[in-house]
Design brief:
With about 180 residues, the chain is mostly helical. It has four helices and two strands; from the N terminus they run ααβααβ. It has a two-stranded parallel ribbon. α1 runs antiparallel to α4, α2 runs parallel beside α4 and α3 runs antiparallel to α4. The chain is elongated.
Amino acid sequence: MQSQFERASHWLALICRLVAGIALVGLLAVTIADVGTRYLSRVTEGAIAFRVSGSVELVSYLMLFALLAAMAANVEKSQVVVEAFSHGLPQTIKNRLQGIYFLGFMALGLILFIGLLDSAAAAARHGTTTQDLRLPMGPIYQLAAVLSLLLGLRSFIHGVLGIVYARGEEASHGE
């Protein structure tokens, strides 16, 4: 059972890394295109006035997707541990405490998921769109909700691994 949890977590992390990578490449492409077209306009003194419409909006949503996907992909490696209270405890107890901590991240992911699903439903119901590009907000909120669910799911998996199997993860120590 432990290996199945680890395998599921591994595949979910790969999916999240792929989404984060695509979002970051898209973010970079939009930024380079926007800066390049602005520079071209300035160099030609406005003769070539091609602009990237809604670049700030695109970058902000791509950053949202990249951050949520990266959080979900690296949740087990991103904990900062300050050992003021757990310094003398055996490693198995530390791992179990870390598992409980992961359950808090699971709750955070589920709360974000539910809130974003509600926002997606409301946006679809009212026809809410983005300001510049007039893209529908419903699918944007839905993708963010799925990425939040993946954060909750991976946190749950690592919480179970920590609590039940006392399996610990590599953490950053606040030393």
